[in-house]
Amino acid sequence: MGNEGVCPQEMMGGGPSVSMEDIEDAETITCEKCKSVVFHHGFVIKKTSALSKVGEQVFEIPIVYCAMCGTPVKDSCPITL
User: How many Cα atoms are found within 13 Å in the side-chain-facing hemisphere of 47?
Assistant: First the structure.
């Protein structure tokens, strides 16, 4: 296919160089609820109150969630949902 020996980060345009051996030895993350191994990227939208110290603002917080059941990957979200 022409990508043999190229790490996924290089194919996606950034990040540290990782060998295919490192990828093969890495743990596959599975969904805690349904055990799927396929995930999507999404956003949690948060809105602060006009009375808060930052005023009314909308924030997009990136998360990774299961493609099958929608369960968020805990390590992917810096806040409590």
Answer: 3
Phi then psi dihedrals of residue 64, to 5 deg: -120, 130
Please give the model's pTM, rounded to 2 decimal places: 0.63
Contact by Cβ (8 Å): 26, 9: no
Domain positions in the chain = 31-81
Residue with tokens 């996924």: 8
Cβ-contact 7, 20 below 8 angstroms: yes
Which alpha helices (DSSP H) does the chain contain, by range? 8-12, 20-25
- Per-residue pLDDT tens for 29-59? 999 999 999 999 999 899 999 998 889 999 9
